[in-house]
Write a structure and sequence with these properties.
alpha/beta; 10-stranded mixed β-sheet; 11 helices; 10 strands; Phosphate ABC transporter ATP-binding protein PstB; ATP binding; nucleotide-binding; P-loop_NTPase
């Protein structure tokens, strides 16, 4: 079930380095929010903080509040593994387990949890691959290695793996940057379909992609090297691209910098 994300006064650090400052935004359920901005402005760092992947880096920490339907995901006693199950992630480069079968790739997370019968796992495999628009292409070779698929198919396999555990939110960190245009279009179509069931946040360098797939867009920027990245503005995608409130946003989306 899709849920709402709310960030308030979020500051993110790597050791003493202040990477991102004072982020406040909300992500409604059943929507796609795109993070755009120049390299190094902190958009992927913010994305990784949303499911506590950021803290995997030694010395990294998050201050402020990140809530999922009103519950602080960084609260005392909250299990980060549970957070990552509830808020799934798809990475920039397809990362299926290359020697593992397509079937085992999809249900890898469920097998770690245990308690599922073979028939349950078969049902989840079919449902997840259909959800990732991959079932018809692989249903006759589920026992073949996941690494044998094309790049676009591998990324859809990773999406199937992410949705198999039925998260509430799906994070995507530049999911199309390593893909050809046809595979990119397939992923974009899939994102539009997936928001019926999930809340989606996507980081993209491709502004046309942000304009095509997102309901709202957040523009991040870096004032200077060594300074923290900041959220400049967030608004409906149509407004960000046609009539942004801030000059820096207009300069970026019009190609004057970045």
């Amino acid at each position: 079930m899709a849920k709402r994300l709310d960030l308030a006064d979020v500051n993110i650090y790597y050791g003493k380095f202040h990477a991102v400052a004072d982020v406040a935004l909300s992500v409604p359920p059943h929507s796609v929010t795109a993070f755009i901005g120049p390299s190094g402005c902190g958009k992927s760092t913010v994305l990784r903080s949303l499911n506590r992947m950021h803290e995997v880096t030694p010395g990294a920490r998050v201050a402020g509040s990140i809530e999922l339907d009103g519950e602080d995901i960084y609260g005392a006693g909250v299990d980060p593994v549970g957070v990552r199950r509830t808020i799934g992630m798809v990475f920039q480069r397809p990362n299926p387990f290359p020697t593992m079968t397509i079937r085992d790739n999809v249900v890898a997370g469920l097998k770690l949890q245990g308690g599922k019968s073979k028939s349950d796992l078969a049902d989840v495999t079919e449902r997840s691959l259909k959800g990732a628009n991959l079932w018809n292409e692989v249903k006759d070779r589920l026992d073949k290695p996941g690494g044998g698929l094309s790049g676009g198919q591998q990324q859809r396999l990773c999406i199937a793996r992410a949705i198999a555990v039925q998260p509430d939110v799906l994070l995507m960190d530049e999911p199309c940057s390593a893909l050809d245009p046809i595979s990119t279009l397939a992923i974009e179509d899939l994102i539009t379909e997936l928001k019926q069931d999930f809340t989606i946040v996507i980081v993209t360098h491709n502004m046309q992609q942000a304009a095509r797939v997102s309901d709202q867009t957040a523009f991040f920027n870096l004032e200077a090297t060594g300074k923290p990245g900041r959220l400049v503005e967030i608004d409906d995608t149509d407004k960000i691209f046609s009539n942004p409130s801030r000059t820096a946003t207009e300069d970026y989306v019009s190609g004057r910098f970045g």
